[in-house]
Amino acid sequence: MSSRSLPASIRTLGYAGAVLLALLPISVLVVRAGAWQAGLALYALTCLLSALVLLVALVLLAWPRFRASTSAVLTRALLVLPGTLLLLSVLATRGDYPPIHDITTDLEDPPVFVHAPELRGSEANTLAIKPESLERQAQAYPDLETLHSTLPPQQALERAADIAEQLGWELVYRDAPNGRLEAVATTAIMGFRDDIVIRVSPRVGGSDIDLRSVSRVGVGDMGANAARIRAFLTHFTNEEHAP
């Protein structure tokens, strides 16, 4: 059956699906271009409309009138499946993460950024410590704590720099005498840039390593900063205990 002989409702379904499928990468490009609010709004709207179009497709499949066009409806429904799955994945995990974007391993004395303020735009999130954010982090990520290393401070700092580069972070500031590194991490899809500070402090028998990771934009980070810190701590610990 040619597309011209299909009922108008099915043809419209296909046109809508094609447009929505194209809008997904376009919305990502808008975010990466710097207009993140407009891009995320377009992304969310595209995913929502994809789910609605898929619902319409399911209605058509259940309608006896369109039984002869089942394959055509299914083919067009596939166009909105990516957007629908993205929407469902966000909804499924939304309640798992608190609406915070500033995460640290030291809730009592979070590391302070020195160089990052020069890199962040005027519309970026503040780097000021928010007590309510620390309280929410304590409840959501109790596993994030200061890493106690047996390495002396300078060796610990060098290992921290190596691990940061292994994780794909861009080192932008190094203050070896004060045991401080700062880096920028860029998210894979949307290209969000988040700032990280690593602080190495001397202690008896080794060093204490603390991190802080802060998103430049947005309210909630969907657990990205905590996952980033957790990855660093895991790499550092594994290397220290490697034979």
CATH topology of the largest domain: TATA-Binding Protein
Mean pLDDT: 92
Helix content: 40-55%
Largest beta-sheet details:
6 strands, antiparallel
Word description of this protein:
The chain has helices at residues 8-32, 36-62, 70-77, 81-93, 116-119, 131-140, 153-166, 224-240, and strands at residues 102-104, 147-149, 170-175, 180-186, 193-203, 206-215. Helix 2 (36-62) crosses helix 4. It is elongated, with a radius of gyration of 24 Å. It is 49% helix and 16% strand. The protein folds into two domains: 3-94; 102-240, Kinase associated domain 1, KA1 (TATA-Binding Protein), CATH 3.30.310.80. The model has no long low-confidence stretch (mean pLDDT 92). A hairpin with a 4-residue loop joins strand 3 and strand 4 (180-186). With 243 residues, the chain is an alpha+beta fold.
Keywords:
16% strand, single chain, elongated, 6 strands, six-stranded antiparallel β-sheet, TATA-Binding Protein, alpha+beta, 243 residues, 49% helix, 2 domains
Topology:
Elements: H1 8-32, H2 36-62, H3 70-77, H4 81-93, E1 102-104, H5 116-119, H6 131-140, E2 147-149, H7 153-166, E3 170-175, E4 180-186, E5 193-203, E6 206-215, H8 224-240
Antiparallel strand pairs: 1-6, 2-6, 3-4, 4-5, 5-6
Helix pairs in contact: 1-2, 1-3, 2-3, 2-4
